[in-house]
## 1
Amino acid sequence: MGTYNVRASEIVQDWYVVDAEGQILGRLASEIASVLKGKRKATYSTHLDVGDHVVVVNAEKVRVTGRKRDEKIYFRHSLYPGGHKLTRFRDVQADKPEEIIRLAVKGMLPKNKLGRAMIKKLKIYAGPEHPHVAQAPRPLPSTGLRS
C-alpha cells in the first residue's frame, strides 16, 4: 500500500468561530494558525492549503501578559529612506484591534504563496457581530480556547 496524498478536489474547508475576549494573544494566534494550516486534520499536507476558515470576534478584548501593552512596538517601513513607522500596542489596540491578531497569526504561517492564501481565510472583527452566518460557523474542536 502506498502513501496517501490528498487531492485538491478532496479538500473540505469548514468554518470556525473564536471569541477572543479575555484570551492571551500568543496562545490564541498559535491555535488559529494551526487551524488555518490544517494541522488538526488527518489529510494535512505541507504543500496544499487544507486548512479551515476562522472567524475571530471580540478582537478588541484580547489580552497580553506582562508590560507588553505599554512596551510592545509594531514596526513598518515604506521602503523609502527614513520611512519607518513605530506604533505601540496600546495605540494599535485602540485604532485597529483586528490588526493585532492578524499580524500575530501571519507571523506563524509560512512565508510563501501558501501562507498568503491561508491568511485570506482569517476574518477578524473588533466586536461580537460578524456577517458570516451563511457558512454556519462553529467553535474550534478540542482546544483549550473558549469559543
## 2
Amino acid sequence: MTNTGTSNITSAILKVMSGVSFVQKAGKNEFHNYKYATEGDALAALRPHLIANELIILSDVIEHTFPDEFGNTTVKVQYRIIHSSGEELVCHFVGCGNDRSSKGAIGDKGIYKALTGANKYFLLKTFQLETGDDPERDDNSGDKGGDYLPPQRQKKAPESKPQVQEQDAPGIDVDAFISQVKEELEHCGTKDEVKQVWRRYQKEIGVIKVSFADREQEVVSVFANANKQAK
C-alpha cells in the first residue's frame, strides 16, 4: 500500500471503521445450506459511511489471466481510496473466478466473478469488517444454524473407518460438488481460507478419491489453483 498524505484520509477511514464493524450475511450456499457475506453485503454496509466521510474508491485491473483448462480466471486490481482533500491510499488485491459448467464448457463470466471476489475482500480486509466467517475454526459443532458445515459433516465417523465407504458414493454429484467448491473458492482471499474450504470438504473429497478416482485430480487442481492465487 502506498499513500500521498494521510492526515485527513486516515481520520476518515477511522470514522468509517467506527461506524460499521459487522456485515450481515445475505448470500446462501444452496448446496450445503449455509450463509456467507457477499460483495453486495459489504457495499451496502459501507457505502453510506464512505459518502458521509467524503471517501471514494476507484479500481483498475492491472493484470489478468485468460481461463485455464478448468475455467479459472485471475485478476490483480489496483484500488485507490481518495479523500475529498486530495489525499489517497493505493493498494492491490487479487481475485479468482471460475465460469465452467458441470458439462465442462467454459463461459465468459470468469473475469467478472474474479473482480467480484477481489472487490469483496478489498472492502472486508481494508475496513476490517467482521462477517462471522472464521477460516481458522476447525470445529464448527458450536455453530448455530450450521453456517459452515453440512449437517452430515457434523456427525463423527467411527474411528475404525478412516476411509469413506463406497456406499456413500451415490450421494455425491461430482460435477455439482466441483461447481460448488469453485464458487466458494472465488470468495477466498487468503491461503488460510482456501485451507478451511479444503478441510470442510474432506468427507466429499474422500468419497471422490475412493469411488471416482478419475476425477480426483480435477478436484485437487481446483484447490491448487485457488491456493496459488491466494495471499
## 3
Amino acid sequence: MRRRTREMDGREGHESADTGGADRGVTRRRVLELGVGALAAAAVTPELLRGGSRSVMNAQADVVMKRIPRSGEEIPAVGLGTWQTFDVGSDRTQRTALAEVLRTFHRLGGQVVDSSPMYGTSQEVLGDLAVETGLISDLWVATKVWIDGQSEGIDQMQRSMALLQRPSHIELMLVHNLRDVEVHLDTLEEWKAEGRFDYIGITTSSNRQYGAVEALLEAEPERIDFLQINYSLAERASGERILAMAEERGIAVMINRPFAGGRLFGAVRGRSLPEWAGSFGCEAWSQFFLKYVISHPAVTCVIPATSDPEHLVENMGGGRGELPDEATRRLMEEAIG
C-alpha cells in the first residue's frame, strides 16, 4: 500500500477540506460532474494525455508563467516540492506511484522541482525517476547546500547533483536556512560563473531568520538571484516587508509552505469555497491558497509537495487561468481570518 503521509500540502486527515462535502478534492467522479473539460479529465486519467502532442498542448495552454527578474526567463508559477513525499528510499511501489506524479506534473506544464540534502532520499529518488520517466532534461531543478564549511559544502553539492542525475549543471542552488551563508555564497558565485548553476540564492522557512534575510537583501542583493521563503494565507509576515524588498532588488521569489504545513486545510475543514472563488477559476481550497500566493507581484513560483495524484492535479490547477486582483486578495484574507 502506498504511504500516506501528512505531506507538505497537509491535506491528509482533512477529508472534506477541499470542497466542504463528502468528496476529497477533485476526484474523477467530481471532475466529470463539474464538466471541467478535457484538460482536467486527462489530468486525472493520464493515459488520455499520452495520445499525442495536441493533448499536451491543450494541457499547458493556460499555465501561469512568471519571469525571473535577473534573466527574463519564464517558468511555470506552480512547481513541485519533494520534502517527505519523495523520501521513499528503494520502495518500488512508492517509486512507481511517484513516477506517475512526475509524469502528470510534466504533462500539465510543470517544470520546477525543488529538493534538499536534508530531505532524506528525496534527491536520489527524484533523480532516478527523472531518468526513468525520460524527463531529466525537461525539469528545472533546484536544490540546496546545508552544512558548515566550504570543503564540506563543495562535497555535499557535488553529491546532490550526482544524486539528481545532473552532475555538471542544475538551474538553482540555494543556501538552506542561511547555514554558513557567507562561506557558501562565495562558492556558489564561483560555480555560477563556471556555468554549473544558472541561479543562486538563499532560503528560510522561519520568521526567526527574517532579520538576517533582510540584512542580506539590504547589503548584498547582487549576490542573490533567488529567495526561497515561507508565505501563505496563514503565514503572511514575509509579505509585510521581505517580498517587497526582493521585488525592488530584482530577486526572484520561490515560496515554500504555501499551505502552512497543512494548517490552512484545518482552518477550512467542513467549509465550502466562497462562490466568488469561481470567478478566478478555483474548484478546490488548494487552488484558492495557491492562487493567493502566486498573485503576489513579487512571487515567481511556489513549490507544494505531494505524492497524491489527485492532489497534484488540484495543485496544478492553482497555476492555471485567472489570478485574483488586489481587492480579491483582501477578500481571500478576510475569508481565512
